[in-house]
Amino acid sequence: MHDHDDQHAIQPPTTGPNTPPDDTGTDTDTDAGGSHHPEAAETSTTLDWPQLLDALRTVGATDGADAAKWWIQDTIGGRVTGDPRPAARRILAGTTDGEPAVQDTLPGANSGWAASFAACHRGTSSGEHAAAAASLTGEQWQQAEAAYLNGFDTAVTDAITAACRRTLHPTGDDRDLTGLHPDHLTLGGVGVFAGDWGSYTDGDGAWRTSRGCVGTLIDTWNGWAVFRCTRAVADAIVEDLQQNRDTYRSHLTADGVAAADLDRQVDESLAQVRFDGDVIVVDSTRVSGDPDDVERIAPDDGRYVVMGWSWCWEAVDPYDCDRIAGDLPEPDRQQEWVLLTHAPYTMVAPPPYRVTAVRHRPSGTFFAELHYNGELIAAILGGLWPTHLAGTGAPFDGAHWQAYVGAARHCGKPMTEAALLDALADEYRLAVATDTEIAAGNTLVRLLDDTGTILAFVRVTPRPAGPAAFRDVRELLRQQPAHPYGVSWQYWTGTAWRHLRSAGAYPADTGHQPTPGPGHGAPRDGTAAPSAD
């Protein structure tokens, strides 16, 4: 709540009746001695009570916006000397979190707002305003005051928040970028990323980066991010790295390094990065001393992974960036794809397609339902032949479904409709099976091959807790018959599948997660996900 001048808050009249406005338009207004006020009767029919409150909110919003303009000029606007961003960050954080130290400094309504009551009575004179005011009860005065102050305070907060965002925004507008904060970023989500070469500390000691890069998070390694980006973002990365080399060269020159030695020292400290047509060339031969240390990064479907799994990229808060390369997505476009929880190495466009009600038959076939936004749109038949849609309903959009199929990937490769339906069916069956086991105090362990095909399941009772219990589970798995294609055992934590131990040719208990191989097909031994029946 903003500070308001309580001495000037509207008070109910001390004389005159407390008769509410007559909504019927009948002349029933009386003065303190019982006589009628025809002026008040005229104004009471001008606006009904809800309309009057809405009009007061509107006037309050106008007054609040005007007050905010002056306040902004004195705090982060044209009258401020120096960098306004530290103040903008403090104000934005304070208004977002409701910190009294910030909220109490925002402009509040003063004695001038009482005239707004008259402004809400179209065409009335001051005498008519007084008569209308005299007809309000004490409760109605409180409602009128609350309506005005609500409009005023909301407009003040909105205007100041928008001004802070414009001041801090890397692209100069006031879009809310809090949804792109690293805390909200998951695999397949769009975020903003930066390397350490552009980072610095501002006057308040806060970490900043000269430019962030928009991209889609595709993996992590040792806590660092791996992301895909457009050509425009890749161009900006190459430009920044060249600028970094130029800056370092200038420092060396200022330190007295001879011109003949500048190239060697720069090349030994920083890789050469350039475009060769559509391919990014990263030449680190002098940095590492390895003549073969040259990386060539070709685009994949027009996107680049710039030194992923090698350089230390991290997701950053967009508001910590001076500039941002790339197009920032709208809130409903911030998730490009999601990994299915139970179907290994399978990524799809964000919901709403979902398979439910999987029912197995003794013949080996199964029936299921395909839902879109919670609505049944098709029947599914699978088992002994390629899984397919056996019937569709009126809401089914064939073009939309085919686009969904076209965007699906398994181990990075396109999926057929049958493979996608199988994966969605496994997603449902395993969700039911794991929920059942967890509720019983157990969990499941599964064996995967190099394409993510599930080869076997093992129930673990009770659910392991602590290092000793997991050592016992690993020992149990060592005693399982070896599978010729098995590479990785995973266990269900209750929220995700985690690597437990390697199998087959992979060294046991190294923590190594096998790289998914290129391919997808039916399980080699016919193993299916646990039935939901």
How many structural domains does the protein architecture include?
3
3D shape:
globular
Distance between the termini: 55 Å
Number of helices: 13
What summary fits the major beta sheet? 6 strands, mixed
Instruction: Give the proportion of residues in helices.
Output: 25-40%
Strand content: 15-25%
The average pLDDT score comes to 81
How many beta-strand segments?
21
Determine the structural class based on helices, strands and strand pairing.
Answer: alpha+beta
Low-confidence stretches: 6-45, 122-127, 505-529
Taking all Cα atoms into account, the compactness measure Rg is: 33 Å
List keywords for this structure.
533 residues, alpha+beta, 3 domains, six-stranded mixed beta sheet, four-stranded antiparallel beta sheet, 13 helices
What secondary-structure arrangement, pairings included, does this model have?
Layout: H1 38-44, H2 49-75, H3 85-97, H4 100-103, H5 116-119, H6 126-134, H7 138-168, E1 190-194, E2 199-201, E3 207-221, E4 224-228, H8 231-254, H9 259-269, E5 272-276, E6 279-283, H10 285-288, E7 294-297, E8 314-315, E9 321-325, E10 338-339, E11 346-348, E12 353-360, E13 366-372, E14 375-382, E15 388-392, H11 398-407, E16 409-410, E17 413-414, H12 417-439, E18 443-448, E19 454-460, H13 467-478, E20 488-492, E21 497-502
Parallel strand pairs: 3-9
Antiparallel strand pairs: 1-3, 1-8, 2-3, 3-4, 5-6, 6-7, 10-11, 11-16, 12-13, 13-14, 14-15, 16-17, 18-19, 18-20, 20-21
Helix pairs in contact: 1-6, 2-7, 3-7, 8-9
